[in-house]
Amino acid sequence: MNKTVIFKIDGVEVRGKTGQTIMDAADEAHIYIPRLCDVEGLEPQGSCRVCIVKVNGRPAAACTQPAADGIEVENGTLEILNCRRDIIRMLFHEGNHLCPICEASGRCELQAMGYRLGILQPAKYPYLQPVRPIDASHPDILLDTNRCIRCGRCIRASKYIDGKNVFGYVGRGIHKRVGVNGKDFAHTDVHPDDKAIALETCPVGCIIRKGLGFFTPVGQREYDRAPIGSDIENPELRREK
Amino acid sequence: MKRDLESVVSQACRKFDNDGVRIIDILREVQNRLGCINGETMELLAEKLSSSRIEIEGLVSFYSFFSEDPKGKVIIRLCDDIIDRFAGIDQVAKVFSEELGIGIGETSSDRSFSLEYTPCIGMSDQAPAALINGVVVTKLTPGSAGTIARSLKRNPDPSRLVKKKGDGNNAGRLINAMVKNNIRKKGEVLLSDRIPAGAGLESALKKTPDQVIREVIDSGLRGCGGAGFPTGRKWDLARRTTAARRFVICNADEGEPGTFKDRVLLTERADLIFEGMTIAAYAIKSKSGILYLRAEYEYLRPFLENVLKKRRKAGLLGKRILGKRGFDFDIRIQSGAGAYICGEESALISSCEGLRGEPKTRPPFPVEKGLLGHPTIVNNVETFCCAARIIDRGAQWFAAIGTDESNGTKLLSVSGDCKRPGLYEVPFGIKAAKLLDMAGAEDPAIVQIGGAGGEMIGRNSFDRKICFEDLSTGGSVMIFSSHRNVLKIVDYFLEFFIHESCGYCTPCSVGNVFLRERIQKIMDGYAEEADIDYLKDLSKTIMMTSRCGLGNTSPKPVLSSIDQFPVVYASLTRESKQGLQAGFDIQKALAESRRIAKRTSMIYDPVYGSENE
Fold first, then answer.
1. What is the 3-state secondary structure (H, E, C) of B96-158?
2. ipTM for the complex?
């Protein structure tokens, strides 16, 4: 089944294998397609829509769309860039993302994506300023869903890596949010070593370790060194990491 | 109390063989018996079904008919469609509220009543309407609302409210509803009085499955739910798969605002629907089918179950259908639980699997990997009826009706400002103006074709045709006369989409909220020209990046109203004064700071000082 497929991303020839998504093949070819909900090691779900591309002129999510022979993928056009900027802005405006006071600042993928896509001050849309209760019941972990972007990485990590169901989606529409398997977080079977609450699982500052605040000095934080996606574009960086 | 809870939960689970796939049915049972599904109940259910509390909470918080908070024994759901709004549902709501002493969204302290608004219940031709538990009450007035409320206070059995029954099967013992069919125009395909019973199925079994599919392809039949995918091709794709099991699903989750055609077909053409499903099963080699019935149409369920029973008895369902060796097929009814998105075929499949009704990632498409991973065809109620008729009368007969790209007749649900709201079966290609004439619309100014995600047209466009190549519709035609406010209609549709978005993807769940905010700014008179460009720009992002048809179409009322009613928008936008944003309302902006600071503004308020002084 591992037949080679050859297609183009912005006119550049890319070789992938059948069964791969456009995103997988692009990553191997060192072409970065921005993404938030998709992360290595978890099944893609295509929900954040940041990885939107055009395949033969039709919009598709690169993280779920299969690579196929002869397709023409648009990734770096202004039209696509503007769509991605709008989606990043929507996420900023929908929650409360106060970078200067957020513990995840500097390693936050949402913030880094804002910089990478050239959004310096998200002011296009109205701020919804949600007031969702913070769950500080657990001795080691704090959950602040006001900063959640509903990427579901914690949900999938818990389910498919930890073999548990610590997190899950509740509600729908604009009220959809990540809930926990119990009346609060302290009443779940979460373990400090769970992948679901690992630092790299949450792309923003929603899952926070207590007693471990602002541990990397400004200037040395992950995205202080290089923009998000650099490790894919430049494999040298990946080895350093 | 705990023991009671346990017995209700285990009984409900046992009724559906402790099968996690049937959890929607189980939750419906528990909700009906306990009035709520709280954390404790969720934990019990999780234990019984080897699920988890969070997964059950995910379902309970997704479907509108479930609730964590206790509901009253009698739940009054007032239809909050735009048609019902213009027909005076707010006055009706006010009376209910006063009589029962509770506000909208509240439950009385003795838990006897809950009062709430619900999106379109499929009764736009007899608005304003409401659902009282399962019972439909139509053509409400403030007067009749008072009578109903007082009667329910004396005797909480809502079935007693059905005094004057509707026509046709509505009057029968099993439906027993005051709902009227309002069939205004009968066409030769679906509403004709001369449809021979069972002719389609008999004819199908004389053909090979390939010939049946060929016939449907040649007829040019396209999905009647709105998307218009060629039906024969869908069947063909499912048939060509290698699979041990295949499923036939009938989409009776008719939730599109202003549509009620499926309600009438379910009432008057139930046999034809099941016949169409059976033909499809024969064509694609399926042994089991599901009719997914929206929760609002639960009042039709006993009747439909009985039709199925009779068909089994007559050898039209079950083993060896009509004596044909190896052709076994049966149908079960799956009830929905209040979610418009489940009308989207892959979301409907998710719901049938006992999951949150969220669309699935495509590819793979349902015809390859559908229900529980098996190839599945999902077709609309009307589509199955058409298919049965095509197999009886032949592809040529069907293809001769309609236009080049839209063959056959279309059922149009007409509602709003007209003398004759109801169901019209007309050939595809009918001009909007002709339909408006037939419906007795005296002063039509705004017509919404295709439901919430459809197109809004004004007088200049009334000569356009209703068909896939021009004004495409799943069947909803809403008429508004010249005294109606265009923006109020647009605002309603956005409110509807915000309520019904599943929330899976960012642009749909968030973007529609921003669209509505700006439409309201225009309504409030604070908009400037740039706001129109903002709406167009945001609409484009939502339509292009959303994951399913809901977000791909939700901005259409915004875009088509800007296109068709530019004068309305122009009159409500103003030019900004030098350097100032016209849209900036200083008083509104200050309100929040006043609240937090607990004092007024030194510059902008006539009296400066704290509230307590």
1. HHHHHCCCCCEECCCCCEEEEEECCCCCHHHCCCEEECCEEECCCCHHHHHHHHHHHHHCCCH
2. 0.96
